[in-house]
User: What shape does this take?
Amino acid sequence: MTTSKKLLISDIRYECEDDYYERGKRYFEKGQVLNLTITNEGALFVQINSTVNGTASNPYKQNIRIVWRPDYSSAEIEGDCSCPIGYNCKHVAAVCLKYRASTLPPEALESNRPSCLDWLDDLTEPAQQPNNASQEFLAYLLKPSKTAREFIIDIFITRKKKSGGLSKGRRTNLNNLRYSFSYLNYFHPQDEEIIKLLSAVNSSSGLPIVSGAAGYLALSKLLQTDRLYWQDGENLPLKMGVAQNLAFAWEQANNGDYQLTLALPDTTLLIFTDPPYYLDTTLGTLGACNTAAISTGQLKKILAIPPVPAKLADEFSQRLVIEHPSLSLPPPKQILLAEEDNLTPLPVLLLFGQQIDSGHYGHFIRLAFRYGEWLVSAAEALEFCVTKTEQGLVRIKRQLEMEQQAVTRLVEMGFITMDHPTLQELILFSPDEKATLAGAARWGQFLQHAVQELEKEGWLITVDDSFLLNFQTAQSFDAEINEGQNDWFEMRFNIEINGQSHALLPLIMPVLENYDPENLPEILSIPLGNHSYVNMPSEQLRPILNILFELFNTSSLTNEGSLKLSRFNVASLADLEEHSYGLFSLTGGKELRELAKKLKDFTGIQDVALPDNLNAALRQYQQQGLNWLQFLREYQFAGILADDMGLGKTIQTLAHLLLEKQSGRMVSPCLIIAPTSLMSNWRREAERFTPDLKVLTLQGTERKQLFSKISDHDLILTTYPLLPRDEDALLEHDYYY
Assistant: This one.
């Protein structure tokens, strides 16, 4: 085996690509290469047959040919495999790694060999060898194609003649060079990249057309080979020339029409790469063209411009200068053009409104810039603009960086530029993330704060009559409580705006629906209708909102804008009043507010003293029941005394009612409804334990004669079945309970 041959990891990675290399490496490391047989070997190649264990039940078979360059700097791999991929797959990569390992000395296979040494092995690039006069090489001939201003590359395998120039040689093509004969001695390391670049461009009759960015790179690489010739090999190879500026000129025909020409010598040709090259056929040089920011596509259009009739020359010249001020192309007829290069842009804003559709009216900002006395649209970021004046045309050099700073300023405030191909102006709007609240709040902040700041900096801001947004502040707040019946009450919040009172709750419902109370914006812009809003600091609304967020799901809003609340929510009134911080006044509902304060200060249910003449000693749990009933009375809550049967609920209730009578609070009888079987029990226990309570039992047919005596008694006993029959008679009286 020739010791100069060495298969590099970079060769395997390049030929099999990174993905297959990495997977093949894992196969190799796991020992899945079952066998490897070298079937044929020469000075510059090796032929391998192998099998690799894969995912199929039977191992995959490989037939691999590795071909080195004459200087052994690198190798190409052509590996066929029986797997579905078929060519240079992970199985081929695994076999190549196995082969490479078999060619390395034993010390290189030690597990502790540093990978940095492998990297060093792959790092050195072979020096480029000069062409041997007797050795064949690839010559690249640059030729014009059948299409105007189009050039192709013809490739020959040839050698230098002793008398100078190139031998006739033989033509080859990209396919042969890319896939078949790259290992032969006429193929140099530089050629591989060139062939790939030429394969990426379009072709004409099988020959690559030198065009675009790939064509530019290919010509750059070809110049470095010293094997690029113009048309044939009779002259010296083309050399790199100095860069040249492209210049355009207009020629006037005998009939007065104007035709654009490119100011190049007759022996100089233009090649439409990107960027373009020029070819000086006399000097044999190839160089870059400075096109003054004109793209290759624009250059093609410019050179294809039709003749300009004499009668249209003035109009064409003016439109060229005005509509394309950044294009470095002279007009057919001279245009007097004043240059303004040192003006500072001043942002100009127009606030306006517009009907978007039948249900939506939008508000917008138009941004332009004033340069001196001239207004320039910001729709397109062009380096120059030309404007008409009474004195003629003025070309203004725009300060695009300063303009962008102004646009960024508005975008950072939350406005968004509109993107529409038909717009001739730069338009911004305020997006609505949460219904209309966020968009409106942004406008409110802009109008009430940012406008003044920008105007101080010199911005010119105009508000058009179509701009209808109107932001106001509330002069005062107040909250009103109305006590109702059946343990319900109503609460109404009012704000005064420009002397007019508004119900606040209907206005802030969008806030309750769209915002988290812990993540409110600093300013809430609340819609009043007709494009009017009231700006309210969230801190000012927070006491109200905290209560309403708590009650929102269990309360209902009346048509008058009041919140209907249960007495069980009365504790919220104390929080509301305590955290109003003097921002609003709370009126009405004196008893409810007092109850709210008591609940706010509540520390627990207190023990109460037993009433006089209670002929019983209460157990501890019965005392707690009495305490509970007294708490419900004191705080005016309805409640339930629940316990197992036979544990004394009746005596607890009787003790409570006796306390109420002795305190003077029970000025009306109490109606007690119980099952028929318990009537005698209630009567006996009342007589036994609370003889001071007068008991009237309404039971039996004679009860009707007793209805008139209800007000003379303390306890009125009746049964569930009799309740619907005696309803009218019972309701003629007032009851304490």
